[in-house]
Specification:
With about 350 residues, the protein is α/β, with parallel strands linked by helices. It is built from 15 helices and 9 strands. The protein has 2 domains: about 240 residues, TIM Barrel (Alpha-Beta Barrel); about 80 residues. The protein has an 8-stranded parallel beta barrel, surrounded by 7 helices.
């Protein structure tokens, strides 16, 4: 059996007795990490899943659509909620309002690079205003009944790289762990994630560091952990259309080869996803959400592009599921797509 992946010994929050075994986490992503997708990712080995991130102001003002994002009632398995905002009082109030909800940790979003979040001084914009970031963390910890964590980037841009300063502050204020995406806000999702900086943060903090960025399969998971000694890895875009990435990561952790997920299984899982999304979001929105995953699915199979187009052109969930069931039975996308030649 290969040697265990190197992990730095860290100070674990006694309120989180399960944290020592948590290695594979699903990142909060808007429009992606709802209950249906979290359930599928857990099936394949995700230790913990996060809801779509929610606006603290939306929760404070009782926005129905915002509260729908906290879809955790009765959920089995570890689940986190992530909030964002620039008003400390709204962040405190949101933390209080979440008391009694089904969640294991409350995460603060200091990493989102999207313009509509940053424009309101939320997400990664707060890396450029550390005093406000500090007030927000204090407010959330004061208002929360569950342990608080935070997700950051390496800094605003290359001239304002401050992840160690921010990480040490988060640790001092009482965050149970820090997740870091290895890019600046200016990079958004371009270029390469800087794993050296993740490794530096791991060595700088006593609390666990969760690494994030450019893990797309079991081998890249092995390399990130080997390079950084991080406690765990959070997967974002790498899980879209690819929930079996968690099974590949789990195989690495258990020192065994990962099995091959067949095309038929991919179809069956995607059909399950369609059913779950339609049940939760309704016919139109549910199909739209699954199509965003289909764009990244079935890669590497001859005829996959033609099959994906067929799925995109399908009229409604029943047609989508029928195509997926037919393809699963044949275990070959080319036949269904009329591309067998």
């Amino acid at each position: 059996m290969p040697p265990a992946l190197p992990r730095k010994e860290t100070r674990l929050d006694p309120r989180l007795p399960w944290l020592g075994g948590v290695r594979r986490l699903l990142s909060p992503m808007a429009g992606v990490t709802d209950r249906a997708f979290r359930t599928i990712c857990r099936r394949y080995g995700a230790d913990m899943g996060f809801c779509e991130f929610a606006s603290a102001s939306g929760l404070t003002y009782g926005g129905e659509n915002t509260w729908k994002l906290v879809d955790t009632d009765g959920e089995a398995g570890l689940v986190g909620v992530q909030i964002f905002g620039a008003d400390p009082e709204h962040m405190r109030q949101a933390a209080r309002l979440l008391s009694g909800r089904r969640l294991d940790v409350l995460d603060i979003n200091f990493g989102c690079p999207v313009k509509k979040v940053v424009r309101k001084c939320g997400g990664s914009a707060l890396l450029a205003d550390v005093p406000l970031l500090e007030r927000i963390v204090r407010a959330v910890i004061e208002g929360s009944e569950v342990p608080v964590t935070a997700k950051i980037r390496t800094g605003w841009d290359e001239d304002k790289v401050n992840y160690v300063e921010v990480g040490l502050l988060l640790q001092e204020l009482g965050c149970a762990w820090v997740t870091m995406h290895g890019r600046t806000r200016a990079q958004k999702f371009t270029g390469r994630a800087d794993w050296d900086r993740i490794a530096h943060l791991v060595e700088s903090l006593d609390v666990p560091v969760i690494g994030n960025g450019d893990v797309v399969d079991g081998e890249s998971y092995r390399r990130l952990v080997g390079h950084t000694r991080c406690h765990g890895v959070m997967i974002g875009r790498g899980a879209m259309g690819n929930p079996w990435i968690f099974e590949q990561m789990k195989a690495v952790d258990e020192g065994r080869p990962a099995r091959t997920v067949t095309f038929a299984e991919m179809c069956a899982v995607t059909a399950d996803h369609v059913r779950g999304e339609v049940a939760a979001r309704g016919e139109g929105h549910g199909c739209l959400v699954v199509r965003s995953h289909i764009t990244r699915c079935f890669r590497g199979y001859p005829g996959a592009a033609a099959f994906r187009k067929l799925l995109f052109d399908a009229d409604g969930s029943a047609a989508l599921i029928a195509l997926l069931d037919q393809a699963a039975g044949l275990d070959d996308p080319r036949v269904v797509a009329g591309d067998a030649g």
